[in-house]
Structures are given as C-alpha cells and as structure tokens.
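Posting for a labmate who doesn't have an account.
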Amino acid sequence: MSSANYTPFQNEGDGNTMQRSAVNAVEHGKPMQRSAVYALEQPALPPYTDVVVTDPTPPIIIRHHTVIPKDYFGLALFVTLCCFLPLGIVALIKSNDVRVRAAHGDQLGAQQASQHAQTFSMIGLGIGVASWAISLVVLIIYIAAVVVAVNEMDVTPQPILENIN
C-alpha cells in the first residue's frame, strides 16, 4: 500500500500529536496521563473498527475410557508357586503381556493375552490339583500298607543273647 493514496482519519492526526504531548509533559515535570502512555503503546484505530477481546478457548481433550482386561496375575502366581511351574510361568508372561498391550492401546491383543493367561492358569491349576489329589491318594495307600505291615509283624520279644559262655 503506497503512502500517496493513504489519507489519515479525522481523529488520527499526523500520528505524532500524542507523542509530542507526552514528551512535553515529561520535560516540564508533569505526570504523564494514562491515555498518553497507552497511545504510545497502541496504534490508533479507526472509529468504525470493533475490537472484541475474548479468552482463548481451552483445549478440548478427548479421552477414550477403555477397560483393561483382567490379567489373572494372582492366579498365575499361585499356579506357578503351588501347582505346576511350567504353565504358571507361561501364564505369568501372558499376564504381563496383557498390561503391556493395554498400555500401548492394543485392546484386541490385550484381550487375547488375557484369554491365554486364563487358559494357561486354569490348565496349570487343573494339573496341580490333580497331582495333589493323586499324591494324597498315594500317601494314604502307603500309610495303610505300613500300618498293615506293622500289624502283621510278630512282635514277641526275642532274647538277644541266648548263650553266653
């Protein structure tokens, strides 16, 4: 925009009027008026311009509340320590995989890992309970056999030394 075509508005003046009055006020020891200071900071606006000051809009945060699938960590730990170690370890790995996949946003992978953790935990629990039951039955049979063997023994006292010469 060339300066030859520009004509100032009637309240705009030559642009130096407010600056000169502020400089004169400071030189003569008078306090500057607030409007003079404001005029130094802000350029004059034409009278027909509407200025609307609004607060910036807050950012919109959209959060998807996803449900983290059950990881069966406690069951996997119990199976590892008390039932069947190999399947318990696999169940613990799958249980950890549920948390990792859910943290990365892989809902489908977390669901599958949860199902695998449950499956391995239940199979390990079944094997562990079955082995405990078989062990208990074998122990009962062993104790019964020992009791029967002790009852059938001849327990009459025998002299240790019959003839000492």
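Reply:
Got it, the structure tokens are right above this. Residues 107-152 form the longest helix (46 residues).
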